[in-house]
Amino acid sequence: MIEYINGNSTLISIVTSFLTLVTTIVYVIINSLMHLEMVKSRKLLQKPDVSIRLEKIKSGFMNLILENNTPNDVYNLKFLEYPKSLIGNNEDVPGFLLKGISYLSAKQSYESFFINYPYLVQKNQHEQTIKFHLKYSNSFGKSFEKIVEINLGLLYNNKYLA
Fold first, then answer.
1. What are the tens digits of pLDDT across the range 69-98?
2. Does residue 41 share a domain with residue 57?
3. Cα 23 to the chain's mean position, in Å?
4. What is the mean pLDDT of residues 31-35?
5. How many CB atoms lie within 10 A of CB 160?
6. Does residue 70 belong to any structural domain of this protein?
7. How far is CA 72 from CA 12, 22, 47, 50, in A?
8. Are residues 137 and 62 in the same domain?
9. Which CA distances in Å does 13 have to 18, 38, 160?
C-alpha cells in the first residue's frame, strides 16, 4: 500500500488539490449568496413604511390616521394625490395632507377628522374608492412612493353593537 501511495503521489496530490479547489469555489459561491441576502435584508430594514387608515370615532364619522410603522425616520413626506370634500367642506382638508410633513419620527402618527359618512351617503358618494399617493424619503435621501386606495363602499350598511 505504501508503495502504491509513493508511486502515485503526484496523482494523489492532483486529486486532493482538485477537491480543495472545488470546495473553495463552493464556499465562495455560498458566501457570495449569503452576502447578497444580507445586503437585501439591510436595505429592507432601512426602508421606512407609512400607513394610512381610517378609525371610527362614532357611527358614520372617522379619523384619518397617518403613522410611521418602522423604527426608521421619514423625511419630506408629501401627498401627491388625496381626496377632498369628504366632510362637506372643500376647505376642511387636514394640514398634513395639504402641506406634507418634513419629519416623521419612528412610530409617530398624526390624525384628523376626515370622513362624514352620512354626508357622503346623502351626496351618493359613499361607494367611491379614495386614493392617497405619498412620496417620502429615508435618512439617506432615498425616495419611496406609495399608493393607498380605500374602498368606502366597505363601510356602507355595517351594523355595530353598542
1. 989 999 999 999 988 777 666 667 888 888
2. no
3. 40
4. 94
5. 7
6. yes
7. 57, 42, 7, 10
8. yes
9. 8, 37, 80
Nearest to residue 133, comparing CAs of 62, 73, 83, 72? 83
Residue 86 shares a structural domain with residue 111: yes
Tell me the residue ranges of DSSP E strands in the chain.
50-58, 61-68, 74-81, 101-104, 109-116, 129-137, 143-151
Range of the domain at 37: 2-46
Number of domains within the chain: 2
Q: Where are the alpha helices (DSSP H) in 90-155?
A: 95-99, 117-122
Co-location of 106 and 33 in the same domain: no
According to the model, what pLDDT value does residue 159 have? Answer: 64
Cell of 41: 435584508
Band (158; pLDDT cuts 50, 70, 90): low
Are the CB atoms for 113 and 57 separated by under 8 Å? Answer: yes
Average pLDDT over residues 89-111: 86
Question: Is residue 63, in this structure, part of any structural domain at all?
Answer: yes
Mean pLDDT of 95-118: 89
**Rounded to an integer, what distance in angstroms lies between the CA atom of residue 37 and that of residue 31?**
10
pLDDT for the residue numbered 92: 74
Judge contact between 81 and 133, C-beta under 8 A: yes
76/102 Cα distance (integer angstroms): 4
Is the pLDDT at 160 greater than 80, yes or no? no
